[in-house]
UniProtKB/TrEMBL annotation:
Segments passing through the bilayer: none
Protein name listed in UniProt: Lectin-Abr-1
Subcellular location(s) of the protein: Secreted
Pfam families, per the entry: Lectin_C
A GO molecular-function annotation: carbohydrate binding
Length: 157
């Protein structure tokens, strides 16, 4: 019986180690798309706090680089966000000069602004949210102090 338990424990530990080493799949609770993993967090936070929370998961607020990616993200967020509300993503105008960039330093090669956006209302909107009224497919600039749910993203290696 002792030998059986010894080998069973060894197989269990090996299985757990190998599962943890799998860099080709997303952890439980994260949504896969292409070579990235996404997770919605429903705790409402300011944009800077949300970015720090994502960094605690070795990720950033999500960047979106194509309509296809935006549609996948919108479907995921819509399915998992039960409460009505907008969602922070990783774009911001850090210097408030009209130059928008991603927190993950990826190129800003795609945008999906809602009509009339970005408008920097009252000169206080320098962070970007997925706009719930568009089914999370369009973007709106918003004050970074506003509290929102947020979407984290990281790349598989």
């Amino acid at each position: 019986m002792g030998l059986f338990a010894y080998f069973s424990f060894g197989f269990l530990i090996s299985g757990l180690f190998l599962r943890g080493a799998d860099a080709d799949s997303c952890p439980v609770g994260w949504f896969p798309f292409e070579t990235f993993c996404y997770k919605i967090f429903t705790t409402r936070m300011s944009w800077p706090d949300a970015e720090l929370a994502c960094q605690n998961f070795n990720s950033h607020l999500a960047s979106i680089h194509s309509k296809e990616e935006g549609d996948q993200v919108a479907g995921y967020v819509g399915d998992h966000l039960k409460l009505f509300g907008h969602v922070w993503i990783g774009m911001r105008d850090m210097w408030k000069n009209g130059v928008w960039s991603w927190t993950d330093n990826s190129p800003s090669n795609y945008t999906a602004w809602n009509i009339g956006e970005p408008n920097n209302q009252r000169s206080q909107e320098s962070c970007v949210e997925l706009w719930s009224f568009s089914g999370y497919r369009r973007w709106n600039d918003k004050s970074c102090k506003s509290e929102r749910a947020f979407l984290c993203k990281y790349g598989l290696q």
